[in-house]
């Protein structure tokens, strides 16, 4: 009858499911198929149903999960800062976890997030396999990847990613050093399996090629070991041990650039007189080093903000403007680079 308050029976009939299934959805149970859950939620919304007891619909703060491969780096803290600030603006709570020992990315884990009422998941610098993308979707969760390690071709239309213009950044870093007169330029990058690392390397090689210099990933001046401080120090040692060492080094990130600087100082080199160094990220530490680090700025906070806003759009059923957002990089010149003497 018109004007009557909708009941659990009404919702069940409208959605074409049992009352027990409606109760499971209302109580955030994970043992309901994503398509069925969506049908029930649509019926609840259309009817304006409000349960008289138990968990109520839409009376809790929306929540998203952010998953990191590791917390202990400045890059992660700045991306998270952007996610949290966007969450505060949108009235969304942010729950943070990391990959090690969390049981993350299993079908059970995704279903657990769904049962808690989470809207979706933001993964940062974490590889997500096609089966994990499917499991996330099956649990009814949205998924956005920030700086994904790799993107499987089979997930191109289902995984939304946010990153910076890594190729352009690698190009900018090396063009800067070329403009200062350097011709033997080392590259201390991340692992070959890392998509951002490869994009930065290819930008570096493109700059060398445009300048008429040898440009090959197999060159002795190109190393691809990792993004940590220790990796940077190890790569610098190998580069500086060459019979004809580089006069400048492009590092894959700020953390590895700091490792390059430490190894150079350990050898008694003067920075930047004996060795110019360029980083990538523009984390807080870049301006705290001595000399201050010239680096390629990627807008990490804005990347986090875009990821959060995009995830909320997915949760509302909106199609993303693109499946791959790329935010512009800019070179920040400080005092770790100087003209070739």
From TrEMBL:
This is Transcriptional regulator, LacI family. It comes from Jiangella alba. PANTHER family: LACI-RELATED TRANSCRIPTIONAL REPRESSOR, LACTOSE OPERON REPRESSOR. Residues 6-60 form the HTH lacI-type domain. PROSITE patterns: HTH_LACI_2 (PS50932). It comes from the Bacteria. GO terms for molecular function: DNA-binding transcription factor activity; transcription cis-regulatory region binding. The keyword Transcription applies. Keywords: DNA-binding, Transcription, Transcription regulation.
């Amino acid at each position: 009858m018109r004007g009557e308050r909708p009941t659990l029976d009404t919702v069940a009939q409208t959605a074409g499911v049992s009352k027990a299934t409606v109760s499971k959805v209302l109580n955030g149970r994970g043992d309901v198929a994503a398509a069925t859950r969506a049908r029930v939620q649509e019926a609840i919304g259309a009817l304006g149903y409000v349960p008289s007891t138990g968990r109520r619909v839409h009376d809790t703060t929306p929540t998203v999960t952010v998953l990191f491969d590791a917390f202990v780096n400045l890059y992660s803290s700045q991306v998270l800062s952007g996610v949290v600030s966007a969450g505060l603006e949108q009235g969304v709570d942010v729950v943070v976890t990391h990959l090690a020992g969390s049981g993350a990315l299993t079908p059970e884990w995704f279903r657990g997030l769904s049962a808690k009422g989470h809207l979706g998941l933001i993964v940062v610098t974490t590889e997500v396999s096609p089966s994990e993308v499917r499991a996330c979707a099956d649990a009814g969760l949205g998924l956005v990847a920030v700086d994904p390690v790799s993107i499987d071709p089979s997930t191109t239309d289902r995984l939304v990613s946010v990153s910076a213009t890594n190729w352009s950044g690698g190009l900018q870093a090396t063009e800067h050093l070329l403009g200062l007169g350097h011709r033997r330029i080392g590259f201390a990058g991340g692992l070959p399996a890392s998509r951002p690392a490869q994009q930065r390397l290819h930008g570096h090689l493109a700059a060398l090629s445009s300048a008429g210099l040898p440009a090959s990933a197999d060159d002795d001046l190109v190393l691809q070991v990792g993004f940590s401080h220790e990796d940077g120090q190890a790569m610098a040692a190998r580069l500086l041990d060459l019979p004809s060492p580089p006069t400048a080094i492009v590092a894959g990130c700020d953390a590895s650039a700091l490792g390059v600087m430490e190894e150079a100082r350990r050898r008694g080199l003067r920075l930047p007189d004996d060795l110019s160094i360029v980083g990538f990220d523009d984390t807080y530490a870049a301006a705290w080093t001595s000399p201050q680090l010239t680096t390629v700025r990627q807008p990490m906070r804005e990347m986090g903000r875009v990821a959060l806003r995009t995830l909320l759009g997915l949760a509302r059923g909106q199609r993303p403007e693109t499946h791959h957002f790329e935010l512009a990089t800019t070179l920040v010149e400080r005092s770790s680079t100087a003209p070739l003497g």
